[in-house]
Design a protein that fits this description.
- With about 350 residues, the protein is an alpha+beta fold.
- The protein has two domains: about 110 residues, no CATH class; about 230 residues, no CATH class.
- The protein is built from 14 helices and four strands.
- A four-stranded antiparallel sheet has the order 1-2-3-4.
- Helix 9 packs across helix 12 and helix 10 packs parallel to helix 14.
- The longest helix has about 40 residues.
- The two termini are about 45 Å apart.
Length: about 350
């Protein structure tokens, strides 16, 4: 096997665009120092508090269980409210905004500013090319072949707020009639439509960024299996086989869900009704926490690998094998559990 020699970089996003980092300033905590920190998933997929982190100083991480000692919380006063809150957050599988909307509500964690649970404007702009796939059939239904310039989903909503083409107004009224709403309510429908398909665009983008890192890691495992010294170690070989099988299975599972969503979306536009739209919306939302959890786990694992071994020849085979056995395999069964616990895929009826 010939492997292209190239350097790969870890996947990094600003906090609210990240799968694996949660800025704690959006959580109602009592301790000021914690509100300036963030919760992250480490290489073993354990949730830890990162008090500081940058390229030069590294990452200052604290286990949740060590917080009472660090902040002097008196156990005789009972469990500190921040400890209760952070323990709940530590149990979450992903910190992407779409999973958080569901998981924070289920955990009973209030968020005063719901606007915080949105992707950044920069990230939304980056996803425009993904959103085009979903906005195209919508625009064609109303505007047909009219030559329109669309740079973001906001541009789409603006078109429908003030359509200046008579033909478009007629089609817009037909669409409103199909949905059982007034023509003035169509922009609100479009915002719901935009948000649910922005979530799919976000997850697709995460998977696309992850794909070359997964390819690199699986290629590295192939090299390790064929290393003369390492192929004498049956425990390592079994671990490599298990990891490759699991990662391929997880990647295929997410890809299959996207294909199901595509079929359901096409079906929705073939016969648009309010009921069909809400079925598609519910179908996609039902898998947010599954897709988010799997992508979060795989991204954290691949980032840990790429940071240590950015090129195929980085580190050497022994160091790579040791890192796989000590860090990479830890928590992989948890990612598999997230995938296995997902509801059965159902097509739109």
């Amino acid at each position: 096997m010939i492997v292209e020699e190239r350097k790969l970089n870890p996947i990094e996003d600003s906090d609210m665009d990240s799968l694996f980092a949660l800025p704690l300033d959006i959580i109602p905590l009592e301790t000021p120092a914690l509100r300036r920190a963030r919760m992250i998933k480490n290489a073993r997929l354990r949730s830890v508090i990162e008090m500081f982190g940058d390229i030069e100083t590294g990452s200052g991480q604290i286990e949740i269980r060590d917080l009472p000692k660090l902040f002097g919380w008196d156990p005789e006063q009972g469990v500190h409210p921040d400890m209760i809150m952070l323990s709940k957050l530590g149990a979450l599988e992903s910190y992407d905004v779409y999973s958080l909307r569901i998981l924070l509500r289920e955990a009973g964690i209030p968020i005063s500013n719901q606007e915080a649970l949105k992707l950044s404007e920069e990230k939304s702009q980056q996803l425009t090319s993904y959103m085009t796939k979903f906005t195209y059939p919508l625009i064609m239904q109303i505007y047909g072949d009219d030559n329109l310039v669309i740079n973001s989903f906001d541009d789409v909503v603006k078109l429908f707020r003030d359509p200046d083409i008579k033909k478009a107004k007629q089609r817009l009224q037909q669409m409103a009639d199909k949905l059982g709403i007034t023509i003035q309510e169509v922009p609100k429908f479009l915002e719901d439509y935009g948000d649910i398909f922005l979530s799919l665009s976000y997850y697709r983008n995460c998977l696309d960024l992850l794909a070359p890192l997964l390819e690199n890691f699986i290629s590295s495992m192939y090299q390790l299996r064929n290393n003369y010294q390492l192929r004498q170690d049956p425990n390592l070989l079994n671990t490599l086989s298990m990891m490759e099988s699991t990662m391929n299975e997880l990647s295929a599972g997410i890809t299959g869900r996207f294909e199901n969503f595509d079929r359901s979306t096409k079906s929705m536009w073939d016969d648009l009704t309010a009921e069909r739209f809400h079925k598609v919306k519910a179908l996609i939302e039902a898998y947010h926490t599954t897709i988010g959890g799997v992508l979060c786990g795989l991204t954290v694992k691949m980032n840990a690998w790429i940071r240590l071994f950015p090129k195929q020849n980085s580190g050497g085979p022994i160091k790579r094998a040791e890192f796989i056995m000590s860090e990479m395999r830890q928590g992989l069964d948890n990612i598999k559990r997230i995938e296995d616990s997902a509801p059965m895929l159902a097509a739109l009826g």
